[in-house]
Amino acid sequence: MGQTKKKQHYSGIGGQAVLEGVMMRNKNMYAVAVRKPDQEIEVEIDEFHGVMEDSVLRRIPFARGIFVFIDSMALGLRSLNFSASFYEDEESEPTKADRFLDRISGGNGEKVLMGVTTAISFLLAIAIFILLPYFISDFLNSYIRNASLMAIIEGVLRIAIFMIYIVAITAMKDIKRLYQYHGAEHKCINCIESGKPLTVDNARGSTRLHKRCGSSFILFVVFVSVILFFFIRVESPVLRIVIRIALIPVIAGISYELIRLAGCYDNLLVRIISAPGLWLQRLTTKEPDDSMLEVAIASVEAIFDWKQYLREEFGEQEQE
């Protein structure tokens, strides 16, 4: 009865939580809505063109996920910087480092700093979630001689470190508010994709869990890395490290295809592979208040005509 391949209503929009706000993206347009200190909502609308946007590589399954991942990081950092600008000390003077970066970059110091920050964050993620589990398991190698068991231990360590990290940052006050805005973002998307007009009341009653969430993508990355590293083995310790780093694009590509599948279809297989990510979102999203939903709605409406979407996808249901 169509159970094996049921197509979901896909709006095509996605987003992320930022400092006191929400970023939403629809194709090449994105909007960042932020609740300013004076409680007004500021909305920035702009275009974003990804890496090698017109390249045929972006249409090839498994390869396209690499570019989407890079784009998400770049746009996410740009949106975070915009939201943070409302909460910076307006009277603070540029530091010597700021002036130096502007001088050597021809006035593009902020972009250079953004690139450096992204690179450092990426390297830290590799060190913590890829290399640290390897080195811990390698230390145990002198006590455990079974290669398959060592591969399993490394995988368990990788998952454990990731979960400890998620739980640890959840305890931070600022992160909790960020997770509330994350919940507001999901509720708005779920609201319109379930055929309901985008209002605060309807969004409040929608689920804060979504199969296309970035949290689910990261969890897919962790699980896919565990599986690949279990089957791809070499004797040389140096080559083992090189392979773990070199496979990151492959892992990202596979994970993207899985999250894309989960977002477009609803069947038993999709529900099974989506379950861990949805469970993780109970940690990375929190219930937002109505003021947060208002911000998320402002971000959606700036770049997406949800009324036309409801007419096209649900017909008369938009009146319900």
| Rg, Å, rounded | 21 Å
Instruction: Please state the oligomeric state of the protein chains shown.
Output: single chain
Share in helix = 55-70%
Termini separation comes to 26 Å
Secondary-structure element order, N to C:
EEEEEHHHHHHHHHEHHH
What is the helix tally? Answer: 12
Beta-strand portion reads 5-15%
How would a crystallographer describe the biggest sheet?
A: 4 strands, antiparallel
Q: Which geometry do the CA atoms define?
A: globular
- Stretches where pLDDT is under 50 for at least 5 consecutive residues are 1-6
How many E-type strands?
6
Mean pLDDT: 87
Structural class: alpha+beta
Strand order of the largest sheet: 2-3-4-5
Description:
This protein has 320 residues and is an alpha+beta fold. The chain contains 12 helices and 6 strands. The chain has helices spanning 64-84, 96-104, 109-140, 147-170, 173-193, 200-204, 214-231, 237-246, 248-264, 268-284, 290-303, 306-314; strands spanning 6-7, 13-18, 21-26, 29-35, 41-47, 265-266. The strands form 2 sheets. Strands 2-3-4-5 form a 4-stranded antiparallel sheet. Strand 4 (29-35) and strand 5 form a beta hairpin. Helix 4 (147-170) runs antiparallel to helix 7 (214-231). It is globular and about 60 Å long. Mean pLDDT is 87; it is low at 1-6.
Question: Topology, please?
Answer:
Blueprint: E1 6-7, E2 13-18, E3 21-26, E4 29-35, E5 41-47, H1 64-84, H2 96-104, H3 109-140, H4 147-170, H5 173-193, H6 200-204, H7 214-231, H8 237-246, H9 248-264, E6 265-266, H10 268-284, H11 290-303, H12 306-314
Helix pairs in contact: 1-9, 2-3, 3-4, 4-7, 5-11, 7-9, 7-10, 9-10
